[in-house]
Design goal:
- By secondary structure, the chain is α/β, with parallel strands linked by helices.
- The chain has one domain: 5-stranded Propeller (L-arginine/glycine Amidinotransferase, Chain A), CATH 3.75.10.10.
- It is globular, with a radius of gyration of 19 Å.
- This is Amidinotransferase.
Length: about 280
């Protein structure tokens, strides 16, 4: 009788947290006074005190998890400066600044550039193409996923590869509600075994095939997850900060060993923002 060799069990990596370094901007001047995405309605009242309280709790959450949070001073007349993720992309100490599509946000780029200069960042380049930074760039530890379709120019992807010196994979967004890559995809775990979560319907057919090929173990979000900007999450490899309403996604992540942390960002969502929009990661 011939013995049967059983296949080896697949080893699923145990989620591990690593300390992160973030840059944030308080929503001192937050309001919705113009509309540059489908979430924004200038006729909807905004409670600045509530927005500040939500932002403060988000910052405190990161610090309780052991992460470093630096803060840039907000500027009057720039209500969307709270969304610091749109200000730069930082990998291995190299900084690629931002260039905004909407004129209402254009001045933010210079304030963030000055912050990096005063903090001693010398390898800094301001882009020649429209580039909304981590709004459309997601670093997996090996590859930079880059979105286009509504904000960042496709040509900015090549510029990012040249400046940052990392391989770039272009993805096309097709649903205007998910106008930035970080509203439809985020990185759960970085490195050789990187894992992501994303909402497939936000992407073109070709981009979905690319993501399926690159990340067969990805966590797929449903329409309810996406509709509360549940994909605008922040992960340290184990703890995953999500909007309060993203309960379905939280359950799926918990089943994989991640620890979801749900936070209220309902006031900030009036501008189409969530935890990730408020959080620029400074990748050392």
């Amino acid at each position: 009788m011939t013995a049967t060799t059983l296949p080896e069990a697949t080893t699923v990596p145990t989620p591990q947290a690593t300390p992160r370094h973030y840059l944030m901007c308080p929503p001192k001047y937050f309001t919705v006074e113009y509309s540059i995405n489908p979430w924004m309605d200038p006729g909807t009242p905004v409670d600045v005190d509530r927005a500040m309280a939500q932002w403060t709790e988000l910052k405190n959450t990161y610090e309780r998890l052991g992460h470093t949070v630096e803060v840039i001073e907000p500027q009057p007349g720039l209500p969307d400066m709270v969304f610091a993720a749109n200000s730069a992309t930082v990998i291995d100490g190299r900084v690629l600044g931002a260039r905004f599509r909407a004129p209402q946000r254009a001045a933010e780029a210079e304030h963030f550039r000055r912050w990096f200069v005063t903090r001693g960042y010398r390898d800094l380049v301001m882009p020649s193409r429209i580039n909304e930074a981590e709004g459309d760039f997601a670093w997996t530890g090996r590859v930079l996923l880059a979105g286009s379709g509504f904000r960042t120019d496709p040509e900015a992807h090549a510029e990012a590869q040249e400046v940052l010196g990392v391989p770039v994979v272009s993805l096309r967004l097709v649903d205007p509600r998910y106008y930035h890559l970080d509203t439809a995809l985020f990185v759960l775990r970085t490195g050789d075994d990187a894992q992501i979560a994303y909402y497939p319907e936000a992407f073109s057919a070709g981009s979905r095939r690319v993501l399926q090929r690159m990340f067969p173990e990805a966590v797929l979000a449903d329409a309810a997850d996406a509709a509360c900007l549940g994909l605008n999450g922040v992960s340290d490899g184990r703890h995953v900060v999500l909007p309060l309403e993203a309960t379905g996604l939280a359950e799926r992540l918990a089943a994989l060993g991640y620890e979801p942390i749900l936070v209220d960002v309902s006031e900030l969502r009036k501008s189409g923002g969530g935890p990730k929009c408020c959080t620029l990661e400074l990748h050392a």
